Amino acid sequence: MENQNENQNQPQSDQVYCPFCGSTNLITNQKGFGAGKALTGALLTGGIGLLAGFIGSKDIKVTCMHCKETIGIEGIQTTPPSEELKREFLKARYPERYKSREDKKNENVIMIIITILLLPIILLMCSSIS
Q1: What's the predicted TM-score (pTM) here?
Q2: Model confidence over 70-123: pLDDT tens digits?
Q3: Domain span holding position 42
Q4: SS3 letters for 87-125?
Q5: Do 98 and 68 have their domain in common?
Q6: What is the dihedral of CA 35, 33, 20, 104, to 10 degrees?
Q7: Residue 5 within a domain
Q8: Is the same domain home to 55 and 26?
Q9: Which of 62, 57, 79 lies closest to 25 in space, CA to CA?
Q10: What distance in Å separates the CA atoms of residue 13 and residue 67, rounded to the nearest whole number?
């Protein structure tokens, strides 16, 4: 019984994780024909350049359904990322959610200054209309 509880606390070796958010909700798909490569190849070399669209078409891409990041199969991890790495990813992805108190305080001061400067102008405009 104790051995079973120890196994539940350890990550499973056959489980794969998103290297960004740690989610296990991943899908794989194969990259297909690249129209952009084909068009570029055709412009540079003529009709035979259309074959350039097949370059990399066998590559497998993995998409995380949680954070929507797409990575190559080599980027998959069998251990979840640390909480610190997840936090850094979220800060980079959603900077507005992770502003420091100092940043928010500076924004409030700027808004107060703008209000103080614009209020007399608005009052003058209103008084000149009537």
Answers
A1: 0.46
A2: 888 787 888 889 999 888 888 888 887 777 777 777 888 899 999 999 988 888
A3: 12-82
A4: HHHHHHHCHHHHCCHHHHHHHHHHHHHHHHHHHHHHHHH
A5: no
A6: 20
A7: no
A8: yes
A9: 62
A10: 22
